[in-house]
Amino acid sequence: MCWRRGRWLVVIAALVLVTGCGATIPRDPDGTLDDVRRSGVLRAGASPAVGWVELGDGRPAGLEPDLVESYADDLGVRVEWVVAGEEHLVTMLEDGSIDVAVGGFTKDNAWVKKVALLRPYVETKAGERTEAHVMMVPMGENAWQSALERWLDRQEVVAP
Amino acid sequence: MSDDDPGDEGWPRARFGHTDLPDAQARALRRATRLEWVTLAFMASAVLVVYLTMGSSQAMRTAWVEDLLALVPPIAFLVAVRLGRRRPSPDHPYGFHRSTAIGHLTAAVALLAVGTALAFDAAMGLVRAEHPPIGTTVVLGQTVWSGWLMIAAMLYTGIGPVILGRLKMPLAEQLHDKVLHADADMQKADWMTAAGTIAGVLGIGIGLWWADAGAALLISVSIVRDGWRNLRGASDALMDQRARSFDDARPHELTVEVDRVLGQLSWVRGSRSRVRDQGHVFHVEAFVQPDHEAEVTIDRLEEAVEALRDLDWKINDVVVMPVRELPETIPDPSGDGEARRVDLG
After folding, report:
1. Do the Cβ atoms of A146 and A26 come closer than 8 Å?
2. What is the pTM of this model?
3. Closest by Cβ to A145, choosing from B133, B191, B208
4. CB B211, CB B203: distance < 8 Å
């Protein structure tokens, strides 16, 4: 019967894909991770948030900019910072002009339909509420998102 | 045999209304009931597993809703079997068999409505070029790409229904149950949903953002098609369409058999009958035209009724009416429905 043959074809195709391309799944539709590596530049956006992102005279500082700098070091690239309000950072993520945005964002923020939120990397108590902190990356750049999540999993992060 | 005669294995004698089921059908009914409970349990677990893994994949969401909808036919079947057992009451002189058709119609409308909504969502996802983000999950201390978990969930939910569907299909034929047939038919095809979703997720994995919404669109179109087919079948049955085979593929052979059997009686010159499907059992109204010299007696009429009842367990509620001329208002059931199609233009 043809449906039975079809089922096995699907299983075989899945196995081939799993074993054959395991190393390269997921990939980025727009190639963010490759672009960062090739150009040697990680374009990061920062929006001020007390303790998380501090704006002194020079580059953004604080927990999240430090994490981004440290990730860039691991990749062997340098960071180009853009400082802007949240809404502008979201627009820049949408049109692909930055690769990551930080600003003390939590997983309950309102931009979830426009940008991808990383898996929370640290939690804080704000009174009764638990806030799970996230960074924002462009939608659907899954290799980039997964690489950053993996890297964050290996960091010992202490909330400010 | 009294109403509460226990059947074999001590179960109460299986019946639909006041039709006692032959042993084969009684066994099939018990087995089908058991399988539908298993289906409910399995699909509930599938709904949970898919919910926990679906993330932001549209294909996964569509498959999840389909799994949720797959709970409707088993529930409809179990309710209909329970209601259909009831004997006719003064308020419900035909019994409660139509509960099957209501269950069937409900399932069809649910499929149609939800399938349309999902197809719209998927199409909009494609139009807006939404890139579904699928990141990682920590499983037992390991960081893995969530897509692999989705694929594992789909392998789990894809295999069970195929087995259940194939087990239920022959029972649907034995019991002449349209809801059970619709359920088995959809479940048999469920592996395509799973395979489609896996293809969509793997597509995202290799960087094709449209694979997810594309898979979701195909799955929702198949839900809409199921809904439409079932809606037609269920509404035709409610409009007293002549009885059809359990899979609605062709008119039921009993619709013609009835007239053949009546024609074999020595005193009958011709007959014309209406056989409608009440859900499980048939309702037969037969008009018989006696031979000129023949005398119509109660005995002869009862003999006719018995002859029809002996045809099949599904035939129990039978009216045989002697007439001088065969009613012209009833089309010949051996016709192929051509006249109706012409009428509809």
Report:
1. yes
2. 0.83
3. B133
4. yes
